Amino acid sequence: MSKKILVVGAGLAQVDAIKRCKELGYYVLASDGMPDAPGLKIADERQVIDVKDVERNLAWARKAHIDGVISYASDITLPTVHYIRRELGFPGLGKIPMEVSLNKEEQRERFKKAGLAQPRFKVVDALDGLESLAKELGFPLVVKPVDNSGSRGVTLVHQEDQLRPAYSAAVTNSKRGRVIVEQFIEGMELTVEGFSVNGEHHFLAISDKFKPRSSYRVATQLAYPAAITDEQRQKVVELMKAALDAAEVDNSPAHSEVILGPDGPQIVEIACRGGGFYVFTRVVEAVSGYDIVGNWTRLCLGDPIEDVTVASKGVVLRFYAAARGKLIGVTGLDDAKTIEGIETGLFLKPGDIVPELETDGSRTGWMIACGEDREQAIARADKASGLVKFSVEEIR
Predict the structure, then answer these.
(1) What is the pTM of this model?
(2) Of 353, 394, 386, 346, which Cα lies nearest the Cα of 367?
C-alpha cells in the first residue's frame, strides 16, 4: 500500500507539489480552510480544516494513519505541521528553527549573537521614541512587522513624516504587536533557495531581485542565476550557512533574503519553507535541475532522498503590475505563451480592481521564462512582456 502523507495547506502555491506527491506514488490527504482550495480537488482525500487548527488536523492524521506530514511554501502552516510531527514522531523541521523562522526579532538577535553581517536594527512596540530612533539609525529605514510575510506591512521610509503611517501598517500586520525598524542597505537584493538535510545546507538557486522605486517593498522580478561574481556568490553562501546554523535549521527547504552592499553581503531574513508562488514548485528545479519538491516529500516520509547536485540554468520570474484602476482588458497574453520557454498567466480578470502595489498579493499577473542561461531567459521574458498590454480605467 502507498504511504500516506498529509499536506497542510492546499492553495494555488501547493497544487504542483500535491501533483508531484501523487506522481511519486504517495497517497495524498490535504487540508485547507477554504472549500474551493484548488489542491483539495486533486488530493486523494480532503478535509476543509483551517490550517491553523492543530487539534482537528491532528485528529484527522491519527484517524487516517498517515506516514508523514508536510507543507509547501507556507509560513502559516508550520506550527500545525510541527505539532503533528511531534505528536506522531515524524521526520522534518524541528521546533527551534520553526519558531525562529516565524519571528524576525528572534532571527535578528541570533544573527547578532553569531556576529553575522546584518542591518542595524531595533524592535519596538510603541510609537514613543520613534523619531529619535530614526535619527539614530538614519534614513532611509525599513519598517516591518516581526511576524508576517509577503511584504505585508513593510514600508521603506525616507523621511520623518512617513514614520507613523509605516509603524501603523507594520503593527497592524503583527500578531505580536511588535515592529522592526532597521537600517536600509543600498545594494543588490538577492533571494537564496536552500535545502537543509540533517543540518547540512545546500544552496540550489540564487536570484537578484528587482523592486520598483516606491515606499512598498514588492518585487516584480527575480532573475536566476544572480548577476554576481563567483567570489560574491561564495561570500553569500558562507553567510547563509552561518545564518542557518545560527537558527539551528535541521531539515527544511529555506527561502532567504540577502543584501549585497558596498561592504559585502548582509542577511535580511530566513524562512524555513520554499519560496512563495511558483519559486519552490517550479523555479528552483528549473534553475538547479534538482527535484526539491520530490525530495522534501521523501524526507518527510522517512524515505531516502537523492544526493543534492546543482546545475545552473537561466530563469526569470516576472510579475505584471498594471496601473491602479479597473481592469478593462488584456491583450497579447496568448501570443506571449507561444514563445519558447514562456509560461504566463493572470491573478486578475477583466472587471477586477487593480490595487496599488502594496503587497505580493497586489500583483496583476506572472510569467516564468526559462533559457539555457540568464541572458536567454531575460531576452525571452522581455519579448513576452512587450506583447502583453493592460487596459485599465481610472477610478475616481
Answers:
(1) 0.91
(2) 346
